[in-house]
Write a structure and sequence with these properties.
Elements lengths: L4 E5 L2 H4 L21 H13 L4 E4 L7 H15 L3 E4 L3 H4 L6 H17 L3 E5 L14 H17 L3 E3 L23 H15 L19 H25 L11 E6 L4
Parallel strand pairs: 1-2, 1-3, 3-4, 4-5
Antiparallel strand pairs: 2-6
Length: 264
């Protein structure tokens, strides 16, 4: 199938957090930060394989699945693209007392609306939270939600990128942003490669190829990193959760219009 038009919707994963755009500072916080991410990387690959292909990215960090449904799905449906990629639910699962079954039901509503509009839909599972990640405390929720995503993809005849299956996520910090939640540049690059494979685009690298070996951190280095992470990332996250503040407040979609891809 030709992927001559594609709309990406979702949250920080699809916006590309922690993979800075050319000319941006690494992991620059704040609403003015500009990110590249797996989606822009995949769009560049798609532009090579399908000259003239159009791409939009409506994803915004911090969005809940209900917000994705209300704000992004109508725009995607109106654009009538050949392909919509959708990832979401992680921010919902982080909320205390959230139910992965209910989040999955809301996610399925998103998928059903996109499929009813005639677009092919590609969905992503979550990745298995690695040791020390902020997400490790909700690993059970993520596992249940991941099982639901598999079932939803099967019921609606969606394409699926299974990130849970890539075990290296759990063992190598080089794939991760210092916040231990978002993928770093190398992680986004691997997701782009795997998604291209699922879409049938030509790739020249194996997304599962191990990174070159390096000596692991000492116990002291790990302790220092943990303390720095707690102050720089965990404390601000808890503060936002207590006050109900979204990371995406005031942040517009970075590519709101379906147009031919050009690197920003």
């Amino acid at each position: 199938m030709r992927w001559d038009s594609w709309v990406a919707i979702g949250d920080s994963f699809t916006e590309g957090m922690c993979d800075p755009a050319p000319g941006s500072r690494p992991c620059q916080p704040g609403p003015d930060a500009r990110y590249r991410g797996w989606a822009d990387r995949l769009a560049a690959m798609l532009a090579e394989a399908e000259p003239g292909a159009r791409y939009a990215n409506l994803a915004v960090r911090g969005k809940l699945i209900g917000e994705i449904h209300a704000e992004q799905v109508p725009v995607a449906v109106a654009a009538r693209p050949a392909l919509v990629t959708v990832n979401g639910g992680g921010n919902d699962l982080l909320r205390p007392g959230s139910d992965p079954d209910q989040v999955a039901a809301a996610f399925e509503d998103v998928v059903a609306d996109l499929r009813a509009a005639g677009s092919q839909v590609l969905v992503f599972t979550g990745y298995d939270p690695h040791q020390g990640s902020l997400l490790r405390r909700i690993r059970g929720k993520i596992a249940v939600y991941t099982a639901h995503v598999h079932a939803i993809a099967a019921r609606h005849d969606c394409l699926l990128v299974d990130l849970w299956a890539f075990r290296a996520w759990t063992t190598d910090w080089r794939y991760w942003c210092p916040d231990r939640v978002h993928l770093a540049t190398e992680g986004h690059r691997r997701v782009a490669l795997r998604t291209a494979e699922v879409l049938g685009l030509p790739v020249t690298e194996d997304w599962r190829a191990p990174l070159p070996g390096v000596p692991g951190p000492t116990r002291g280095q790990r302790l220092y990193a943990d303390l720095r992470w707690a102050g720089s990332h965990l404390a601000p996250f808890v503060f936002r959760q207590l006050r109900g503040i979204s990371m995406g407040a005031g942040v517009p979609p970075k590519r709101p219009v379906l147009t031919e891809f050009a690197e920003h």
